[in-house]
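Figure 2 data, in text form.
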Amino acid sequence: MFRCLIIGFGNPLRSDDGIGWHVAREFSHEFQHDDVQVIAAHQLTPEMAEMASRAERVLFVDATHKGKPGSVNCEPVAPAAPASHFTHELTPASVLTLAQELYGHRPPAYLLTVAGECFETGDAMSAVAIAAIPELMAHLRQFLNADEKSASRLGQ
């Protein structure tokens, strides 16, 4: 078991969609500790369920189309059946379901999102997405430093 798994995901070639990927890469360079695993991925995969099953808690980081561009939101993730049999459409909730079904452990998990402004093809993020990075990094640090009770309040 390890204390925390952070999975930042998104396509860095679709502008703001890649913010989770970018933040995870940046955070992995800043924070290196044996009991924390940070993954930057283009999409969620079934293999992540095994890693999630070994974590005390999980934080997913992604971009969203919902909300005012640049706004940051954190909410708990509950397990749910996969909406599709295609791995490109896995959600944080379906990764948790797989962790429970295949490995017998579903840790508490949260989804940290930033509302993007541009999801067009391109490797440059919008100014509002870039401006949200310090807040996202602060949430990641807070998540790592929180105990389970205070981690559950991150989304409030």
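Caption note: The chain is about 35% helix and 25% strand.
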